[in-house]
Specification:
alpha/beta, ten-stranded mixed β-sheet, 4 helices
């Protein structure tokens, strides 16, 4: 019998000064057995750093028609396609044609993510932003991860301050072109 997804709950105090977003959010993220904790933490951070009305996780890691996180407008149209990790060029091409904005959050080396899509056709590839964190930041967050999590997340001048279950972490959020 295959193992099922593990549910993680995050009770979040969010203060994104850069975007003027202040809210208390409960995030429930199911970690699929084939998904690493680093991927899931990055997915939750992407959700929180992009948080706005209409944001949602997709159907899961097996969903090929949707990104890890997406934002829909009131009509149901996808306005933001938010990938996590090191998505292939085909997914980015598809997402960029479908949504107004496409972006990637990675827990991997950004140079390797860019190398993986170099020379490939990606619709509006020059507009896709790759977001990354300081080396070791995601690993330190994974070490503090529990099934039920208390989180305070603050962002100011693209500096992220994270308190995860009493562990204080910080990282710059690096924004660079994907291609």
């Amino acid at each position: 019998m295959a193992a099922g997804a593990v549910m993680h709950t995050f009770e979040v105090q969010l203060a994104d000064v850069d975007r003027g977003v202040y809210d208390e959010v409960t995030v429930r993220a199911a970690r699929h057995p084939s998904e690493t904790d680093a991927y899931m933490v990055t997915r939750v951070l992407a959700y929180l750093l992009e948080y706005e009305e209409g944001i949602a996780f997709s159907g899961g890691i097996s969903s090929t028609e949707e990104p890890a996180v997406l934002i829909r407008d009131a009509t149901g149209r996808i306005t933001a396609w938010i990938e996590v990790g090191a998505p292939d060029a085909g997914r980015l091409h598809f997402g960029s044609k479908l949504a107004d904005r496409t972006t990637v959050y990675t827990h991997r080396d950004p140079a390797k993510v860019r190398a993986g899509v170099a020379g490939k056709t990606i619709h509006r590839g020059e507009d896709i932003v790759l977001h990354s964190f300081d080396q070791g930041f995601i690993d330190d967050a994974v070490a503090a991860l529990a099934r039920r999590n208390t989180v305070t997340l603050s962002v100011t001048e693209r500096q992220l301050y994270l308190d995860l279950n009493g562990t204080a972490l910080s990282s710059a959020i690096r924004d660079e072109p994907l291609v």
